[in-house]
Design a protein that fits this description.
With 316 residues, the protein is of the alpha/beta class. The strands form four sheets. Strands 1, 4, 5, 8, 9, 16 and 17 form a seven-stranded mixed sheet that branches. A six-stranded parallel sheet has the order 12-11-10-13-14-15, with helices on both faces. Helix 3 crosses helix 4, helix 3 packs across helix 9 and helix 6 crosses helix 7. The chain is globular. About 3% of the residues have low confidence.
Length: 316
């Protein structure tokens, strides 16, 4: 199936262009994508030419243990449009299996459609951690995924949400999006920051979503967590980290990981279409294809208050 993708949002890599263990060098980027169908295979019955769609970039093998168990995000043979040898969507045309293509509702634009994939990641993070009604949620990191986790947590009925970050602009964005309280992290002592978090809540949080992937944030989350609570590592961390293991044991914490998503696209589309989640405030910068270098620089540096940067692959 071939489509023309006019919009793709940029995933903010580090300067080393690393995703977990995968080092990205020569590569066609793009995995948060929307587009329009221009051709379908002869056996495709669910999509038509002209359909506006968004793309699930996870193409699993469908036959391994995890795929057959419904955990396709854990497939060891997944073809994901990010690390080599697979190629991404920053091109005018590409093919993708119909099973992983989702029609956009009429009230969701193509530009908004490129945000469905990151929202699906946030929804899966919330589902993995059992975010729900009455829960007190700490979100470490107010980048795009952290802010999407904030929106998803609010939609799921969390009672109190506190967001931390080291950058003032991001904290201000979290306030505007409805965080109950925010903390600008200035101390380098995780235990000191944990005390500030407990003071902000008036108690210890039930669930922490660490959307930074940093050692300091993970340490802070563990020190702040309520006994029996959940600490979920959502942001992509370095390979090794020093964590207060004794604190985990004495509090009997549930420290869990989070990888991409499982069956969350339809939920994301429903939340966006119903208006329960408004992602438009996160879409701060738009660029044409000829300004791609500037778009990447803006996404990487966070200059000018950028949160999510979109790139139009059609210059016309």
């Amino acid at each position: 199936m071939i489509r023309r993708p006019p919009r793709s949002t940029l995933f903010p890599y580090t300067t080393l262009f690393r995703s977990g263990d995968a080092k990205v060098t020569s590569h066609v980027f793009g995995h948060e994508t929307s587009g329009t169908i221009v051709k379908t295979g002869k056996n495709v019955t669910t999509l038509n030419i002209g359909d506006r769609v968004c793309i699930d970039p996870n193409i699993c093998c469908a036959s391994c243990f995890h795929c057959r168990n419904g955990e396709y995000n854990l497939c060891q043979y997944v073809d994901f449009s990010l690390p080599k040898p697979y190629q991404g969507h920053f091109c005018k045309y590409f093919t993708h299996p119909a099973l992983y293509v989702h029609k956009l509702p009429e009230n969701i634009s193509l530009e908004e459609g490129s945000m469905v994939e990151p929202l699906a990641c946030a929804i899966w993070a919330c589902k993995r951690a059992n975010v729900g009604m009455g829960k007190k949620i700490l979100i470490c990191g107010a980048g795009s995924i952290g802010l999407l986790c904030l929106l998803a947590s609010k939609a799921l009925g969390s009672s109190t949400i506190v967001v931390t970050d080291v950058k003032l602009g991001r904290i201000q964005s979290a306030e505007k999006l409805g965080a109950d309280k925010v903390i600008l992290v200035q101390s380098r002592d995780p235990q000191e920051v944990a005390k500030q978090i407990v003071e902000a809540f008036g108690c210890q949080p039930d669930i922490t979503l660490d959307c930074t992937g940093t050692e300091a944030a993970a340490q802070t989350a563990i020190y702040a967590a309520a006994p029996g609570g959940v600490v979920e590592i959502v942001g992509m961390p370095h390979k090794h980290a020093n964590l207060p293991i004794l604190e985990i044991v004495l509090k009997e914490l549930n420290v869990i990981g989070c990888l991409r998503f499982v069956h969350c696209f339809s939920i994301a589309l429903d939340l966006m279409s119903s208006g329960k989640v408004d992602i438009k405030p996160l879409m701060t910068h738009k660029f044409k294809l000829h300004d791609a270098e500037k778009a990447f620089h803006t996404s990487l540096t966070g200059n000018d208050g950028s949160i999510k940067v979109s790139l139009s692959l059609i210059d016309s």
